[in-house]
Design brief:
The protein is an alpha/beta fold and 215 residues long. It has 10 helices and 6 strands. A 6-stranded parallel β-sheet has the order 2-1-3-4-5-6, sandwiched between helices.
Length: 215
């Protein structure tokens, strides 16, 4: 039996070691390397070309989203499985848009992760079964056949970024040289597309995308 070669990236050493031990109990899986951050994961993916890279989304430095983009740019044949405690639509959409083939929640059972790894290795897409069925179907349909388009436009993203760092609608309008009403429309459209419910969700989305890193 050809084993599924897995790269595991998780910044918490105890969690990483525990997952590695659990995965290596299965005859069809081989953990070829593990990493504590996104940059190391990209380096290992480039060198080892695993079948599946399991990436924690919230790693320090280069997070799972940035690592996904880098790996898909350099070794696109590697299947990416995002591992996250965040069930918000925005997180799922961003990872799938970046090229991930699967998304599993940390709070789900180990069997969920195992199914996801096997599905991604087989060239399939997989979303955690605890996500609403309607949501899973919509995402899987949207990103079928490798399609991946950004969930929001560049202008909408700019409006969210400025909102996240504390600018008012009037200040955003002045910064982008657009009308306040236009800012309100972009903000509403972006939040609807990403299912963001308020400012806290917008800030979390900004953190995921690294918008607050240099402030």
């Amino acid at each position: 039996m050809k084993k599924i070669r897995v790269l595991l990236a998780e910044d918490h050493a105890s969690v990483r070691q525990g997952l590695r031990l659990l995965l290596e109990r299965h005859d069809d899986i081989e953990v070829v390397e593990d990493a504590a951050d996104g940059a190391a994961a990209v380096e290992h993916a480039r060198a080892l070309k695993p079948d599946v890279a399991v990436l924690d989304v919230s790693m320090p430095g280069m997070n799972g989203l940035s690592a996904t983009r880098a790996i898909k740019a350099e070794v696109p044949q590697v299947g990416i499985l995002a591992l996250s405690r965040h069930s918000e639509d925005a997180y799922v959409q961003e990872l799938l848009s970046a090229g991930a083939s699967g998304y599993v929640l940390k709070q789900s059972s180990f069997d969920e992760l195992l199914r996801a790894i096997r599905a991604v290795a087989a060239g399939e897409r997989y979303l955690d079964s605890t996500l609403a069925a309607r949501t899973r179907d919509a995402y899987l349909s949207r990103y079928a056949n490798g399609e991946a388009r950004p969930p929001v436009s560049d202008r909408e993203a700019n409006v969210l970024r400025l909102m996240a760092i504390g600018h008012s609608n009037k200040e955003i309008a002045a910064e982008l040289d657009i009308a306040v009403k236009t800012v309100e429309v972009h903000k509403a459209n972006a939040m609807r597309k990403l299912n963001l419910q308020g400012r806290v969700d917008v800030v979390r989305y900004a953190v995921l995308n690294g918008w607050l890193r240099d402030l």
